[in-house]
Amino acid sequence: MRLIAAAIATLLAAPAAFAQELGKPVRIEADGKPIDTEIGHATPALYDIDGDGKRDLLVGQFGGGKLKIFKNLGTNTAPKFGPEEFLMAGGKIVTTPTG
Q1: DSSP characters for 11-52?
Q2: What is the rounded distance in angstroms from the CA atom of residue 2 to the CA atom of residue 24?
Q3: For residue 47, what pLDDT is reported?
Q4: Which of 56, 82, 88, 98 maximizes the CB count within 10 A of its CB?
Q5: Quick one: how far is CA 16 from the chain centroid?
Q6: pLDDT tens digits for 9-29?
Q7: SS3 for 76?
Q8: Per-domain boundaries in the chain
Q9: Average pLDDT in the 62-90 region?
């Protein structure tokens, strides 16, 4: 029982410890412009979508259920994101149901 209590105490203390390490938020730019999700909130993720070994920025947006792709033109340690592209299939923008 003491082991479980210690684990819970550690988990509860973790957010406070991590919060002290976070810096101020910054607007991420792609192609020299701030990224905008048009409608609603965004869900960003890093993933090497084109298989070139560099993590690209993927931004899912609530409005319209679209996935924007910003290819990494820099490196993994110093990313530079290119212009937005939408995830496409069959020549059409892929969308998922929202709401």
Answers
A1: HHHHHHHHHTT-------EETTEE---SSS-EEEEEE-TTSS
A2: 37
A3: 92
A4: 56
A5: 23
A6: 666 666 655 556 667 877 778
A7: coil
A8: 27-93
A9: 90
